[in-house]
Amino acid sequence: MIVCSCNVLTDHDVRSALNPDGGNARSAGEVHRCLGCSRQCGRCMHTIRKIMNDTGCSAAHAHAHAHVS
């Protein structure tokens, strides 16, 4: 599904930016940066945050794992 119509990003693109092998984004803004684009209208931010929460990649979750290593 298209998550960001301004940058034509799909939910798969967002998940790849959250994957440690893909981008390890910790916030909705970092998702755009990892994918080589920038936020335009901002309507996608809620959906990106929802995907992050659904996949367990919230900022707090990612931050906690960064200090475990």
Automatic annotation (TrEMBL):
Signal peptide: none
Coiled-coil regions listed: none
Listed Gene3D superfamilies: BFD-like [2Fe-2S]-binding domain
Tree of life domain: Bacteria
Domain BFD-like [2Fe-2S]-binding, residue spans: 2-53
Record-level Gene Ontology MF annotations: 2 iron, 2 sulfur cluster binding; metal ion binding
Keywords: 2Fe-2S, Electron transport, Iron, Iron-sulfur, Metal-binding, Transport
Family label: Belongs to the Bfd family.
Protein name from the UniProt record: Bacterioferritin-associated ferredoxin
Lineage: Bacteria, Pseudomonadati, Pseudomonadota, Alphaproteobacteria, Hyphomicrobiales
